[in-house]
From TrEMBL:
Subunit relationships: Homodimer.
A GO molecular function held by the record: isomerase activity
HAMAP family listed in its UniProt record: TIM_B
Active site: 91, 161
Name of the protein in question: Triosephosphate isomerase
Binding positions (substrate): 10-12, 167, 206, 227-228
Predominant location category: cytoplasm
Length: 244
């Protein structure tokens, strides 16, 4: 099956209104036959959408509840009202910093789906888990425990992000990436049947203009989730080009 590639950026807690000039340059560069999206800090969602209407702007986290006493959190409805069309859930930095569990990640994705938003669900092993030979079991276990009800390719993508590759300049070999994506695809098939073949599985972790072509064309890799290199058009646009 042919799956259209998706290259998504994750600005994390970086960027300000002045930095949105980079977003304008990224949008202006065009994407060809590739989908492009950028998740930005929540305060930048509305100004970003105003600057690049029609470009997919997303949030970096969402609370699973609709409303309530959750100081500092944002619901899917609030993100959507601000202009976000998608949101990342389960990023390893949130799993580590905020102790997010698979069950919470699942509930977050389901909240996005209730509001007709798209989700990028992140999974990935730590270095200790990889060294112990547990990487595949950990990642497929995260998939099984955090895959939302109604998981379907038109609103959900998976991002395989080995924790030890995020922001470190280290990446798995292309063969290791292909093997893990194949294992994720097989797990998805076991869970949701043929829909798994339409679902995009992104690779994330130190993707750069230099390594993007090899990583993005590995088996079962349907795009990338890019952190540091999504902050400037000069670094991000070549990654989008490499995906095409
Ligand atoms: C990320 O934060 O999802 C990520 C992959 O970061 P980086 O590209 O900087 O490793």
């Amino acid at each position: 099956m042919t799956r259209r590639k998706l290259v998504a950026g994750n600005w994390k807690m970086n960027g300000d209104r002045a930095a949105l000039a980079e977003l304008v340059a990224i949008a202006a560069a065009g994407a060809g036959a590739v989908d492009v999206a950028i998740a930005v800090p929540a305060t930048l969602i509305a100004p970003a959408v105003a600057l690049v209407p029609g470009f997919a702007i997303g949030g970096e986290d969402v609370h699973p509840a609709e409303t309530g006493a959750h100081t500092g959190c944002l619901s899917a409805a609030l993100l959507k009202e601000a202009g976000a069309s998608f949101c990342i859930v389960g990023h390893s930095e949130r799993r580590a910093d905020c102790y997010e569990t698979d069950a919470e990640v699942k509930a977050k994705a389901e909240a996005l789906h209730r509001h007709a938003m798209r989700a990028i669900l992140c999974v990935g092993e730590t270095l200790a888990q990889r060294d112990a030979g547990q990487a595949e079991a950990v990642v497929t276990g995260q998939i099984a425990a955090s895959l939302p009800e109604g998981a379907a390719a038109d609103w959900l993508s998976i991002a395989y992000e080995p924790v030890w590759a995020i922001g470190t300049g280290r990446t798995p070999t292309v063969a290791d990436v292909a093997a893990m994506h194949g294992a994720i695809r097989a797990k998805l098939r076991a869970l949701i049947g043929a829909e798994a073949d339409a679902m995009r599985i992104l690779y994330g972790g130190s993707v750069t203009a230099e390594n993007a072509a090899a990583l993005l064309h590995a088996g079962d890799v349907d795009g990338a989730l890019v952190g540091g290199a999504s902050l400037t058009a000069a670094k991000f646009v070549p990654i989008v080009a490499a995906a095409g």
